[in-house]
Amino acid sequence: MVGQCMWSAAHLAMVGSTFNALTMALLVGHHLFACWNGDRRLLEEHGEAFEVVRERTSTVPFQAILEGRQKLPPDYYKELIRAPYALIAVGTLGAYFAHPYMQAGAALVKNTGLVEGGILDGLLG
């Protein structure tokens, strides 16, 4: 849910049209409904067992750990050194260091420019 909100905010800032604002609001609303409905369905199916799990977790990243409802095991870092995480870390760092080359290549492409009527018109127009 947090990721969907971040994704929607980034796309709204990039495009900035009222249509995009409505689309992002509906998309976030759809995900809110899905979270609520999923919790409702799991509560109906599992009852008290689901309540126990819901009380010790959170949809906000790391909130349950910061509030003391969960504890990380002493060897939690071993999860992060597995191959999929290493591949993502290498790819992310590679993309970071390749940005100057990507920007140089993008400068060679004809840009469509700012979408007129967007929320960024006043700042960048």
From TrEMBL:
<feature type="transmembrane region" description="Helical">
    <location>
        <begin position="12"/>
        <end position="33"/>
    </location>
</feature>
<dbReference type="InterPro" id="IPR009915">
    <property type="entry name" value="NnrU_dom"/>
</dbReference>
<keyword id="KW-0472">Membrane</keyword>
<feature type="domain" description="NnrU">
    <location>
        <begin position="1"/>
        <end position="102"/>
    </location>
</feature>
<dbReference type="GO" id="GO:0016020">
    <property type="term" value="C:membrane"/>
</dbReference>
<protein>
    <recommendedName>
        <fullName>NnrU domain-containing protein</fullName>
    </recommendedName>
</protein>
<dbReference type="Pfam" id="PF07298">
    <property type="entry name" value="NnrU"/>
</dbReference>
<keyword id="KW-1133">Transmembrane helix</keyword>
<keyword id="KW-0812">Transmembrane</keyword>
